[in-house]
Amino acid sequence: VQAPIPAPAPTTPSPSAPVELAIYAGGLGTLGLSPRPTGGGNVGLGFRHRSFALYGEGRMDLPVSLEVAAGVVRTSLLIGTVLPCVQWRQLGACMSLSVGALQADGQLAFGQRDTSVVVKVGARLQYEWMLFQHLGLLIHGEASAVPTRVTVIADDVAIWSTSPVAAEVGLGII
User: Fold this and answer.
1) Closest Cα to residue 104, out of 59, 143, 151?
2) Quick one: which of 11, 94, 115, 155 has the most CB atoms within 10 Å?
3) CA 118 to CA 77: how far, in whole Å?
């Protein structure tokens, strides 16, 4: 006598990982896109799913002033960044693509104010330290190449040019 073949156990689908929303804001220090090191702030919004994340970020650097023979020239930067990232636990590695505007005010060769496009491409490492379920600290460091070089000219003299590389470090709340 042969025993009946048992029916296969019903399979329960594994729950899919949810898409998470991440919002962050913080302060940062920068080199390379202003005449000397400066600080600034950033705000970002992103979506995360398992080990992949995609963030959009806006950044504003504090103005930096340079003294020239005819007075003072001030530079400021406003830039937007897209960051596709791979995450493992709290550590993230991101590619960075940024486009923004570098503005110079003062006694310039082409008038009192001039604005130029700045593009930078680089890599970012970041670490999230979650203090609570939905609140934590975000620390990042980034290095970028700057293919769009901008030179500020005052009194017919080049007084400063953007560096071919830029760097930033930041600390924020996520």
Assistant:
1) 151
2) 94
3) 9
